[in-house]
Amino acid sequence: MNNCLDENSKAKPIALVFPGQGSQSPGMGALIYKNSKNARLTFEEASDITNIDMAKICFKGTADDLAETRLTQPAVLTTSIAFLRAMNEKLEEKNIVIKPKLLGGHSLGMFSATVAAQTFSFQDALGMIIDRAQLMSDFNKERPVGMASIIGLDFEKVSKICSQATYSEQNRVDIANLNLNSQIVISGDLNALTKAMQLARELQARAIQLKVKVSSHTPLHSEQSKEFKKLIKDVNFDDPQIPIISNNTSKLLTTAQAIRHEFENQLHSPVYWTENVQQMILEEVQTIIEVGPGHVLSRMVKKISDKLIAVSLDDAHDEPIPISVLPEVIMS
Q1: Core-most of 106, 144, 194, 217, by most CB within 10 Å?
Q2: 259 is in which domain, residue-wise?
């Protein structure tokens, strides 16, 4: 199927970014499925690979269904790639080729970004995601964990709260995602997580437990990272056709080895999304397009910097869907 890449075209000051777990919602992808042949083929391909009726899960599944990690992760990946392929289909119909300067993804979204970069196939990505989701689900069965968003406190204060709420290595909570300077996600054992939320509220911050049944991106998952490394050792990685921003270091990932290292360490490494966006600005990106369900990332981008144009393909409700939301400067 068509990809956003064209070796003969010059990269534009654009970054495509792909959302992660937490962006799912009932009915996601239904409109793009209706309006794009390539989107429909993507859902069918995913269903064949996973033996899961992906369209049924995404379009008719409840919020509780989509909160199940083993379903959430392949569903978000599938919907994101469906949006990517639909975008390229509609652009091709207008004889427009877009070659982004950079790609990015939030956690799970890194798999979508890497498919877009042609480092590995959609089929390989789904296989890895199924293994990843199973690892995370199994961990939660053995050890009750969760995640929460702390709004209104900076990194240092949230770090201190996590230290105060951590009782031991077997009962700990840590920073997982720095989404905004004052919106930080913490992750860990439920007892420690609950204590951290209480401490945050005592400092007049908002503390919201996320509707996920897993934790991730903290030292709690070091052993899972080792297991995931074994599971993906035989997957072929190629050098990316477009650089990808590392979630953890915000450096540009330009080789197969660097991307493999990113995924081997992803489950126990924090996501520094604010720094990711700031790096995109340094790389002279001017427009960020969120490719996938929802608009969480594009809204965060607007809060991080007023220098950037940020849009979500999922906000397209006028023809041609989904490219009707793209700024005119991209379409010219």
Answers
A1: 106
A2: 12-139+221-331
